[in-house]
Amino acid sequence: MKPPRKLHIKSYGCQMNVYDAQRMVDTLAGEGFIETKSVDDADLVILNTCHIREKASEKVYSELGRLRVAKHDAARAGRDMRIAVAGCVAQAEGEEIIRRAPAVDVVVGPQSYHHLPELLKRAGTHGRAIETEFPAEDKFTFLPQPRREAIRARGISAFVTVQEGCDKFCTFCVVPYTRGAEVSRPVARIIEDVKQLADNGVREITLIGQNVNAYHGEGPDGSTWPLGKLLHRLAEIRGIVRLRYSTSHPRDVDDSLIEAHRDLPALMPLVHLPVQSGSDRILSAMNRKHTVAEYRKAIDRFRAVRQDIAFSSDFIVGFPGEREEDFLATLALVTQIGYAAAYSFKYSPRPGTPAAEMQETVSAADMDERLVRLQELIDRQQSAFNVAAIGTTVDVLFERAARNVGQIVGRTAYLQPAHVMASSDIIGEVRPVRIDSLERYSLLGELVSPAPAIRPALSETNIGA
Ligand code: SF4
User: Measured from the CB, is residue 178 less than 6 Å from ligand 1?
Assistant: First the structure.
């Protein structure tokens, strides 16, 4: 029997890339590859790149420079190491990677991972292979189901891609160019994936997509299902105790999603709803296709059906043309909404996007100063949100043993890490925890009851469909 070949994947960026990396591992498992944590003993190294990072392409080329040395060392030791570049930089740069990085064997765009085995074979016979087209077929139809052992090793929480691509064309963003137009997976395939995950111990599913709430997949009845209807159906799958979704666009908050939050206890009351700026003038320059008032209205709709709902968001400071009054409007919006968490970044241009051509740039000093002010405000809100948990009893889904011996760590409904002293038997269960204290961003507490609040049955996942 041939010994397994070793695969090392270095993944950057969003949850979608984490999920894609897992699907590449699943695809290549069928070709006899097993994962290794080390580049040095790998037969195949895949850089799963992200174009959102600042100077993304240049960082990929310097990483490829390091890999060229590793490949050279492997060859001297008599091993044939292959290098593949995947993800959004692969899509955006394509042939340029082949031209500038002779050590690279395969370049594959995010829509073509299912062709990886064939591309590796092609590279073996023809030297190098590239595929960055948007293929007519849906890659998900061709990707193999993850193996049982792989699901179990990945833990009790899993991502499932339900939608890819974006038609919004925000002026700062490369996603519509690198991931293509919005495409939704059919409901039946998603149900199949979730049942298989539940059957193998997964308890929490996060549905992911660049514009996840623009989901419009074909239902089993032939009609188009919105995200809310899909969530209703997934909540019926035995074993799944928590549902989440990310990332949403304010314009796509529809009745079905609001109803899902109203009706489904399994749908967690934390919504990531990026707004980017609190100024209508800047939102318009960003081509966000919504106003501040519309964003607030979307927030109010969630709050009207679930009083315990909390929000996180994304912000860009220093977008071209942003004046002090625009930034103050952002601070005012943050103050008004009150976030449980938020991510904030200084604007940096992405080549090929309309914003990269905008002339009225904000000085580095102004950007730095605004980012500090915004982050201080967000940090205060996040701390207040976490402190408010002290003294309360919250449900925690336990995930794994913590670094401190004897401690088990899980997540609250709001994704706060929570630690308790307990046996590892509680992993995979939702248990009420009395929160005693807060250590930075982690809650510390005690199990309230020795009996499980929810102990979902394993392996019987078939309800209805
Ligand atoms: S909505 Fe805007 S920021 Fe989000 S993926 Fe689409 S273009 Fe990018």
Answer: no
